[in-house]
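Lab notebook, design round three. We kept the backbone fixed and only want residue identities now. Task for the bench partner: fill in a sequence for the structure below.
Input structure tokens:
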């Protein structure tokens, strides 16, 4: 090898490789930027609105807790007050007792008289009767109307019918109670031959007028929220409209429909004026007879609380009824929310 070739090899092996340099503008763009803080990135009025919503939500929860504390505080002294134990025994609130003038032990609510009787089971039975009947009337009608408007009704008909049904939710309950008292009661007695003009059936019919808009609105929104692609796919496979409605759309909207049913049940449990005016307000203990007059917990509290002395045993029992109704409603709503969550997980295969 010649000396010139050897020197060339030595120069090539000795010279290190230099990476190509990028322009100054490109190098500057590759530098990591410091992340902006959340306070600097979010406008001030956004943060104010966020804090306001948080305060309002917290105040709503605190208001519910304070209401329960107030009710429980008025009912709790019955467990240690001597004046209450002298007149009422706690076991008499839930167990049948043989009173003077009765041949056998009876469940009876009669807070006035020589021997006050404070058995609360007839009140719970009346509440259960009216609520169950009202749900049996309301759920098929509310869900059926929602399915019809979401799947079958023309658009122009939907625009007229939906606001009309939702308008029922804005009618005062006293108006619905008066309608049940004057119209539904007369029609039901003439049609079915009831011995009592005001009974659990009449109260349930009037109460269903207040529950149907709640169930219908939430169910219809849930059906409308189902993706249109599911219906189109079923239609492409040759399914008919009723098959699409019952096997595709309704199962997909079950969590929303169940939420509407739970809210409707809570409304039925807490309604006062309709059952006060249309139930007959007679605490009759006949579990299998829905044609007799009934007396609910809410109607009892509304009718009697303004006529008793503060701290009286009757006063304590009424607040006990309010606390028990509060707890029952809370537990039922909690169980309903758990059931809705399970349905959502089952249908979407996700965890919430």
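Proposed sequence:
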């Amino acid at each position: 090898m010649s000396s010139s070739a050897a020197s060339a090899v030595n120069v090539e092996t000795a010279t290190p490789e230099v990476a190509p340099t990028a322009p100054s503008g490109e190098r500057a763009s590759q530098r990591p930027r410091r992340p902006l803080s959340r306070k600097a990135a979010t406008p001030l009025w956004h943060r104010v609105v966020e804090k306001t919503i948080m305060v309002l939500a917290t105040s709503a929860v605190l208001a519910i807790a304070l209401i329960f504390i107030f009710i429980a505080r008025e009912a709790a002294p019955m467990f240690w007050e001597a004046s209450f134990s002298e007149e009422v025994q706690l076991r008499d609130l839930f167990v049948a007792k043989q009173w003077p003038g009765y041949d056998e032990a009876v469940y009876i609510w009669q807070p006035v008289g020589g021997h006050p009787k404070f058995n609360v089971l007839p009140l719970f039975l009346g509440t259960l009767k009216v609520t169950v009947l009202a749900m049996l009337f309301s759920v098929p009608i509310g869900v059926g109307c929602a399915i019809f408007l979401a799947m079958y009704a023309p658009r122009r008909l939907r625009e007229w019918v939906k606001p009309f049904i939702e308008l029922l939710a804005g009618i005062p309950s006293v108006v619905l109670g008066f309608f049940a008292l004057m119209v539904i009661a007369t029609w039901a007695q003439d049609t079915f031959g009831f011995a009592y003009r005001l009974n659990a059936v009449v109260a349930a019919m009037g109460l269903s007028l207040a529950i149907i808009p709640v169930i219908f609105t939430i169910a219809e929104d849930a059906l409308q929220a189902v993706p249109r692609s599911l219906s189109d796919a079923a239609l492409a496979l040759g399914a008919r409209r009723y098959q699409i409605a019952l096997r595709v759309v309704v199962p997909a909207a079950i969590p929303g429909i169940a939420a509407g049913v739970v809210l409707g049940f809570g409304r039925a449990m807490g309604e006062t004026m309709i059952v006060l005016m249309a139930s007959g307000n007679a605490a009759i203990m006949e579990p299998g007879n829905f044609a007799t007059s009934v007396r609910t917990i809410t109607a009892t509290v509304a009718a009697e609380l303004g006529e008793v002395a503060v701290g009286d045993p009757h006063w304590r029992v009424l607040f006990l009824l309010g606390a028990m109704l509060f707890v029952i409603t809370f537990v039922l709503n909690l169980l309903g929310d758990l059931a809705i969550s399970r349905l959502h997980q089952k249908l979407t295969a996700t965890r919430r």
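Keep this in mind before ordering anything: The longest helix spans residues 313-348.
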